[in-house]
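Hi R.,

Here's the chain you asked about this morning:
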Amino acid sequence: MDVEYDVIVLGTGLKECILSGLLSVDRLKVLHMDRNDYYGGDSTSLNLNQLWKRFKGEETPPVQIGASRDYNVDMVPKFMMANGALVRVLIHTGVTKYLSFKAVDGSYVFNKGKIHKVPSTDMEALKSPLMGLFEKRRAGKFFLYVQDYKENDPSTHKGYDLTKLTTKQLISKYGLDDNTIDFIGHAVALHRDDSYLSEPAIDTVKRMKLYAESVARFQGGSPYIYPLYGLGELPQGFARLSAVYGGTYMLSKPECKVEFDEEGKVCGVTSEGETAKCKKVVCDPSYLPDKVKKVGKVFRAIAIMSHPIPNTAESHSVQIILPQKQLGRKSDMYVFCCSYSHNVASKGKFIAFVSAQAETDNPETELKPGIDLLGPVDELFIDTYDRYEPTNDSSLDNCYISTSYDATTHFESTVMDVLSLYTKITGKTVDLSVDLSAASASEDDM
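And here is the predicted structure, written out as tokens:
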């Protein structure tokens, strides 16, 4: 280990693997290490035997649930916005060639005790049972405004400065009621709580436009896509990308200890008596526990079922958002479901997740509103994990620590964390308009 690396990445979670790939593409010398013997870290995918071992000890799964190899159960289940940041990163890096995707059937919202399809355009708003006739017209006008809004074209702004106007002030100009605001803010703009109402409206309008663009991209019933065989392929796809650009990988490296010089700056990583020198370290919170703080806990129920979720038009893959106000909570609850149609379960089987930021000490009771939507389940597991975020100043110690995964069932906040870390590490932003795979192909032709 006499080589000095620009960056050592610790942990093969999705965030760390994306960064490893992006930094390798930048021609930085990257060493990627993990104490585990598998890719994915906390965001790994498990087969049925691994799932049983993790949650039930050494028990063998019941035969009627199907073959273990048919299952790929994500421990951090998230869909991708079809026009969102992660898809743009995948296209930018060419990692799409390692994966196959399929559209997600449905996007729903829980309102007044019932599940409703989320309207994303003025036409869908007019058909939605979520609203009465007059409210539909008002909502349709608001969706039309958002649809036509172009940040660089003041003629589309209707005199509103969305960098100064709060979301609440903008919505009040259209006279929308609380229920409509609820599903727009949480199920279309994908805010996690109501704090967005007092923030500049530009962010909500951009989020709504992303939702509508994502729905339009595949002309499906939702704005989401999801890889065949689950998310476990994603970290490996970025690991391959890193390797193509010269990155080095070492799995099963126990007790990776980050070393610091007299000034408190990182200078290397020691494992099994050998030290690899480096200028910077990127890692998940578990590798530098004294430089992070606990910021909460996530509760998650994992269900194996023999049917789609009731009242979702027989959807084989679906997201349902339960806005905080509908449940008397401080943050939203999420239901994620996929099935054998995405090759993550045996034929005829469905996997559902109910996730929430913990607000009590009782996961079963807290997750009940989401679990009740699932109908009969064959098996149910309860999972909890702590969330951490960094407390260090990376400009002083050169340690770049990712934030733990949140309870949401979409990737937008995950990728924002990755792109923010990339900018801190390199001092520049990723130009997602460039297709690196095309660039590298033309280099090969020269």
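One quick note: DSSP finds 14 helices and 19 strands in the chain.

Cheers,
M.
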